[in-house]
# Entry
Amino acid sequence: MRIAAVSYRAPSRTVSNEDVLDHLEAQNPQARRSSRKAYLNLVNKLFDKCGAKTRQWRDAAGEEKPADLILGAMDDALDRAGMTATDVDLLIYCGVGRGFLEPANAYFYAQARGMGSANCFDITDACMSWIRALQMAQLLLDGGHYRRAMIINGEFHMGFHDNWEIRDVRSLAHTFPMYTIGEAASATVLTATEPAQRREWRFDYVSRPELADLCTIPLEGYRDFVQPSERIGLNGVARFVSFGAELFTEGRSLLSNLIQQAIPDPASKRMFFPHAPSCAVYEQIAQASGIPADRTYLEVFPRFGNLVSASIPVGLSMAEAQGLLQRDDPIALIPASAGMVASVVQLTY
# Structure
């Protein structure tokens, strides 16, 4: 399998840290002034600590639709790959953002672009979703089942999973990560290669299921499906809860160890592309793993915030546009995700 093209579309509205703080203040006129000030001061310090600067959200007037941005990303990727929509015989929709629980979201985008008989399905595994979809596509393409695949996602969460209530500063332990969320759509075109021309792909994972309740968005009735946990539902049903500090601590250890096991010589890789929930945590992971200081691409988070499963494809597209990522570069993808799970994917771009 070969990555033929990666594209993304982001909403037009740039939201600064100051904008988020102003929004929080405006949404909580009933909060005591002293409590509100303490809360906002701590949020601002946490922004500085994690490296957050701006993020893109849909326009306040509601004129930007997720579907338009997803379809735009698909069109861009097809154009860059020199293909038409009818060339795609496998469409995978992945990620947390979605419009439907049934049927697979992929069907609607295949329908919108006239993909005819393309096989369609969805894959969901929090911020690891795009990596899971990538491996599934690789297995199916290299197995000869399909010739051309596309992976798409639309991580649009503001207005769905947000929660702007100012409470005790202790609530930031499970609420702050929401303030770093950005929005974007991505589309990745993948093509099968002949056996003699196949490039090696290697996927390594390590999971810690006992940490599953560190980062959740529960559905109505979730209590009937899982064992009780005091961590789940703290912001309400369908609201994002993430114990960021603990998640990053566990993820840092998990991913650093996996990188050292999977890549004995980090200098052999031209670039490393992380999922982007924080710059600081991946700087620490790179240092602990022996990755050369200039090899980890960390420009997604300060510019776009946490893009959930779209972080890595957006990073690939940005790095290629900047001339930092070239064809035939040996690279590694190094995400960690709620679940908890870490992954190292090695490939030649």
Observations:
- The mean pLDDT is 95.
- The CA atoms of residues 95 and 129 lie 5 Å apart.
